[in-house]
């Protein structure tokens, strides 16, 4: 837990430094490496590297402590088409910034947008439906060799992990009810594993 937080803070500092120095390609290189690694180790960029997630986790912690509730994800946002339209717009803006030298502060704007939305809506809105980074990472994440898995024999179907997940990556189904984690949507943030009262969620390879 503490190790994860220190790593998140480290990458947040790196992100701020990269943005101040104007060296966007450096951060894109970090994301590119994380994209490839996601096919082997799951979406650790989201849970351990992404500065947006680091700041939104701070918001989530504060809101939980104060008992503040937020709006749910609007139904119209859940359209898969919207996710890919946002992704396309993001890729175009990054391309213009890198190739034509057009200075559009894409990444800082995303950071502000993600945090502001999380002030008013549940984190699933950003992580699951609006973040273009997340949409890209669903592809390698879906085939990740190592991922978060549910040990079926230990799972009681209590849905605590489902409520803890900030990306709607956990479903409770079957008879008897058991948790199922979607590897494509899982942020590898460890929230579900930390919340599970029976230690039924592990990080490993293959089927649990």
UniProtKB/TrEMBL annotation:
Gene Ontology CC entries for this record: plasma membrane
A single Gene Ontology molecular function, please?
4 iron, 4 sulfur cluster binding
A Pfam family recorded for this sequence: Fer4_5
Q: Which PROSITE patterns match?
A: 4FE4S_FER_1, 4FE4S_FER_2
| Keywords annotated in UniProt | 4Fe-4S, Electron transport, Iron, Iron-sulfur, Membrane, Metal-binding, Transmembrane, Transmembrane helix, Transport
Residue ranges occupied by any 4Fe-4S ferredoxin-type domain in the UniProt entry: 146-175, 177-206
Q: Which residues cross the membrane?
A: 9-30, 36-59, 80-98, 104-122
Lineage, top-rank taxon, reads Bacteria
PANTHER family per the UniProt record, alphabetical: FERREDOXIN-TYPE PROTEIN NAPH
List the protein's name.
Answer: 4Fe-4S binding domain-containing protein
Give the organism the record lists. Answer: Anoxynatronum buryatiense
Q: Which lineage is the organism of this entry classified under, starting from the top rank?
A: Bacteria, Bacillati, Bacillota, Clostridia, Eubacteriales
């Amino acid at each position: 837990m503490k190790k994860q937080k220190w790593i998140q803070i480290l990458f947040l500092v790196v992100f701020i430094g990269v943005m101040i120095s104007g060296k966007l390609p450096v951060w894109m290189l970090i994301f590119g490496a994380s994209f490839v690694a996601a096919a082997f180790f799951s979406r650790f960029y989201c849970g351990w590297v992404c500065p947006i997630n680091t700041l939104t986790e701070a918001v989530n912690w504060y809101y939980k402590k104060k008992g503040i509730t937020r709006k749910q994800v609007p139904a119209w946002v859940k359209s898969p088409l919207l996710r890919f339209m946002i992704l396309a717009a993001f890729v175009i803006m990054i391309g213009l910034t890198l190739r034509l030298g057009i200075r559009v502060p894409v990444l800082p704007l995303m950071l502000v947008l993600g945090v502001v939305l999380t002030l008013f809506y549940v984190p699933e809105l950003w992580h699951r439906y609006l973040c273009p980074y997340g949409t890209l990472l669903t592809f390698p994440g879906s085939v990740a060799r190592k991922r978060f898995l549910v040990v079926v024999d230990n799972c009681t179907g209590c849905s605590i992990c489902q409520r803890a997940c900030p990306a709607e990556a956990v479903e409770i189904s079957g008879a008897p009810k058991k948790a199922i984690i979607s590897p494509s949507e899982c942020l590898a943030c460890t929230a579900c594993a930390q919340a599970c009262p029976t230690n039924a969620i592990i990080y490993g390879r293959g089927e649990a």
